[in-house]
Design goal:
By secondary structure, the protein is α/β, with parallel strands linked by helices. The protein contains twelve helices and 14 strands. The chain has two domains: 206 residues, 3-Layer(aba) Sandwich (Isopropylmalate Dehydrogenase); 138 residues, Isopropylmalate Dehydrogenase (3-Layer(aba) Sandwich). The strands form three sheets. The chain has a ten-stranded mixed sheet with strand order 2-1-3-12-11-4-5-10-8-9, sandwiched between helices. It has a two-stranded antiparallel sheet with strand order 6-7. Strands 13-14 form a two-stranded parallel ribbon. Helix 7 links the parallel strand 8 and strand 9. The structure holds nicotinamide-adenine-dinucleotide. Nicotinamide-adenine-dinucleotide binds next to loops.
Length: 355
């Protein structure tokens, strides 16, 4: 078996700190050929663009890509012609043909009280947000004329079909659900793209009698996610709605610092990254929570490198570390038995539990 190759893109803010932690975890769990590249603000500083062709080529040539976070106040601008860190992320997603973003949300038992929602609301939550990633308003025509600005939102039937198939497949392979359920989220009462979305999902649902498919408006979904999160199984939605709903779902776990994601295409390497941003407010303090990145490494091993057993080992080690009371400051509630630790100690604790 050749050694799997991973491109590691630390990015900005806390990115380099959690990338270093992920490197240690990978060293502890297996043999990988890791090469680093620049993305986001640091790439703008060095190269004038958020993603160079060379970095994209390196990513294309590897088996999987692990990205930490991009952005920060240094590169914030309203000048439409200035390069922006997020362009690196969008360029990578479209350059690798990654049209499906999967975000599992399953609160860890030790963190049930760290959620802003009551324990009895979130206990038992186990959902997956499947977000379309390369269409919709983030990729439409955009511009300004005089005092007017516009962002076009467009979807094709084919784009909706391929993400719907991923959602149906993911629903079929999730554990512990009596009958898989997919909730397709749109704004079909207002938007034409949403009506096309709903028609297409309904047509594919007719050929998938083993799955319960329901449709929900996005505003209603935002409410239901906090009032009855345990009722959801797979949430299928378009790019902008998925961006917002998955951050809302993130809070069910108690912290953005706990949420991993996987982005997949038809073939080629997948992209694995924590959901959170570059957390400039805590960058350089050694307090960043590395667990979302560790769980992204786990997704990478499972979906990107076909190493499910090692992925399980990481998830168990994270669960045991939390059970033992270790918390980074974003997770700490001050409860008895908890000990607030920084990035390095949390990393050591998780690695010490890798069997
Ligand atoms: P953020 O996710 O960076 O931070 C939100 C809050 O969560 C902050 O208080 C932060 O300290 C905390 N937080 C986030 N990750 C954490 C971690 N691992 N450990 C501990 N605490 C953590 O979101 P933001 O503040 O809205 O954005 C900051 C920058 O990140 C912006 O430039 C934004 O554009 C960028 N961003 C990047 C991505 C990405 O790279 N995928 C995603 C979202 C935002």
């Amino acid at each position: 078996m050749p050694v799997p190759s991973i491109t590691l893109l630390p990015g900005d803010g806390i990115g380099p700190e959690i990338a270093a932690a992920a490197g240690k975890l990978l060293d502890a769990i297996g043999d990988y050929e890791i090469s680093e590249g620049l993305i986001g603000g640091i790439s703008i500083d060095e190269n004038g663009v958020a993603l160079t062709d060379e970095t994209l080529e390196n990513c294309r040539g590897s088996d999987a890509v692990l990205l930490c976070a991009v952005g920060g106040p240094k590169w914030d601008t309203t000048d439409p012609d200035a390069p922006r860190p997020e362009q690196g992320l969008l360029g990578l997603r479209s350059g690798l043909g990654l049209f499906a973003n999967l975000r599992p949300v399953r609160p860890f038992r030790a963190l049930l009280d760290a959620s802003p929602l009551k324990r009895d609301r979130i206990e038992g939550t186990d959902l997956l947000v499947v977000r379309e990633l390369t269409g919709g308003i983030y990729f439409g025509e955009t511009g300004r004329s005089g005092d007017r600005a516009f962002d076009e939102c467009a979807y094709t039937v084919e784009e909706v079909e391929r993400i719907t198939r991923i959602a149906f497949e993911s629903a079929r392979y999730r554990d512990g659900k009596p009958k898989p359920r997919v909730t397709s989220v749109d704004k079909a009462n207002v938007l034409e793209t949403s009506r096309l979305w709903r028609e297409t999902v309904s047509r594919l649902a007719a050929d998938a009698p083993d799955i319960d498919v329901e449709h929900l408006l996005v505003d209603n979904t935002a409410m239901q996610l906090v009032s009855r999160p345990t009722d959801f199984d797979v949430i299928l939605t378009e790019n902008l709605f998925g961006d917002i709903l998955s951050d809302e779902a993130a809070m069910l776990t108690g912290s953005l610092g706990m949420l991993p994601s996987a982005s997949l295409g038809a073939d080629g390497p997948g992209l694995f990254e924590p959901v959170h941003g570059s957390a400039p407010d805590i960058a350089g303090t050694g307090q960043a929570n590395p667990l979302a990145t560790f769980l992204s490494v786990s997704l990478m091993l499972r979906f990107g490198l076909d190493q499910g057993e090692k992925a399980d080992q990481i998830e168990s080690a994270v669960e045991e570390t939390l059970d033992a009371g270790f918390r980074t400051p974003d997770l700490a509630t001050g409860a008895d038995g908890e000990s607030a630790v920084g990035t390095d100690e949390m990393t050591r604790e998780v690695i010490s539990r890798i069997t």
